[in-house]
Amino acid sequence: MSDNKTSLLIIGSGPAGYTAGIYAARAGLNPLLVSGPQIGGQLTLTTEIENFPGFPEPVSGPELMDKMREQAQNVGVKIIEDKIIEADLSARPFTCRSETGQTFKADSIIISTGASARWLGLESEKNFLGFGVSGCATCDGFFYRNKDVAVIGGGNTAADEALYLTNFARSVTLIHRRDSLRADQTMQDRLFNNPKIKIEWNSVVSEFLGTDTPKSLTGLKLKNVKTGAEKELKIDGAFVAIGHHPNSELFKEWLDIDKEGYIITPPNSCKTKVSGVFAAGDVKDPLYRQAVVAAASGCIAALEAEKYLNELKKQ
Ligand code: FAD
Ligand code: NAP
User: Which ligand sits closest to the CA of 187?
Assistant: First the structure.
């Protein structure tokens, strides 16, 4: 058991958390960052990133996040490998408790706990994650030029991803577990009118198929939920688009949270309902969910926290 006192506690070690740390440390706020269970955040799940500025050659997710961590440490961010399991935002200093029994008392907090892509939960899905299985078409679609891909899901994200993928892929098969889509009508019309898109209705993926050396996805085993019939679909890439889950559970008692679990902040700001508590990155972003956007909002949160702490000093 130990007590940590800080002017600024940053929760999460993704692009939002590390960027917030870099700005806050350079502003002399001596921030303390708790990394959480996934050190480096969601990008550590991906093999190649081509859309983060500053890297003319593709950079692996873990390498990019190692560099961000190193940069944060170099400017003075203190990083603690632990997970926050309890938060009390009722009064300042705010109090958080961690999995290992540490207590954190902070004058301000930046919540950058991200959002986790929902996955189907199959062992074979985990096996090919980053090797043909992806949770992000904007990130990985480029690698499937003239290839055959599948998108799993029937909501707006799946529709968006399927349409986006037609810019690269030879064919896109949308796999949906029911016989009608959840996506809105405009998106449906676009899907139905795109000659590259085919839909497998009433179908679920029962297995992701592929080779071990080299590790690569080659197809999907599909099961028709109405007839029970199984078949194999040959594809090079599969995009799981069955929704995202923002990691905001701990804070829902204290903050305004929308019906999907995203922390609500005003436009162009990371402020929350509680003065001194800020939210940055995917945990408050139902729209873009990109690393560079998360990093930018980490920057905004740190600048707002700096201003808040300066005001506090004057009181
Ligand atoms: P995250 O990266 O999700 O980080 C959240 C952090 O919070 C983690 O460190 C986690 O450990 C921590 N945390 C969670 N709960 C707690 C807790 N209770 N206590 C303490 N810490 C906690 N975007 C791109 O721009 N380009 C890409 O090529 C790209 N590829 C992607 C590939 C995949 C497979 C996925 C899933 C996403 C990809 N994205 C990509 C999206 C990008 O990863 C996210 O937009 C970005 O990581 C969001 O950053 P974040 O800092 O908000 O949150
Ligand atoms: P969503 O609307 O919750 O849709 C998730 C889809 O995945 C549903 O079709 C669901 O099937 C399916 N699904 C869920 N779990 C599954 C499982 N285990 N196996 C197979 N399929 C599964 O999520 P979303 O599409 O990510 O959208 C989230 C929110 O963002 C929505 O409000 C959406 O409108 C919004 N959004 C808007 C746009 C846009 O306007 N362009 C783009 C993206 C997202 P069922 O339909 O059978 O439940």
Answer: 2
Cα–Cα dist 218/50, whole Å = 23
Q: 96, 139, 270, 299: which one is catalytic? A: 139
pTM of the full structure: 0.83
Phi, psi of 110 (to 5 degrees): -110, 120
139 is catalytic: yes
pLDDT exceeds 90 at position 70:
yes
Q: How far is CA 302 from CA 106, 194, 287, 309, in A?
A: 14, 44, 21, 10
Distance CA 118, CA 107 (A): 33
pLDDT in tens, 157-187: 899 999 999 999 999 999 999 999 999 999 9
C-alpha 183 – ligand 2 centre gap (Å): 7
Q: With b meaning 16 or more CB within 10 Å and e meaning fewer, what string describes 294-304?
A: bbbbbbbbbbb
In the annotation, is 136 catalytic? Answer: yes
How many angstroms separate the alpha carbon of residue 1 from the centre of ligand 1?
A: 29
Q: Which ligand is closest in space to the CA of residue 100?
A: 1
DSSP 299: H
Is 299 annotated in the active site?
Answer: no
**Mutation test of ligand 1: which of 23, 96, 136 has the most ligand atoms closer than 8 Å to its C-beta?**
136
Which tens digit of pLDDT belongs to each residue from 142-160? 999 999 999 999 998 899 9
Tell me, what's the pLDDT at 1?
A: 59
Residue with tokens 């071990």: 212
Could you give all domains of the chain from N- to C-terminal order, each with its CATH number?
3-117+244-314 (3.50.50.60), 123-240 (3.50.50.60)
Q: What does the pLDDT look like over 15-37, one tens digit per residue?
A: 999 999 999 999 999 999 999 99
Candidate of 182, 185, 188, 220 to mutate for ligand 2, largest count of ligand atoms within 8 Å of Cβ:
182
Output the CA torsion 81→85→91→92 (10° steps): 0
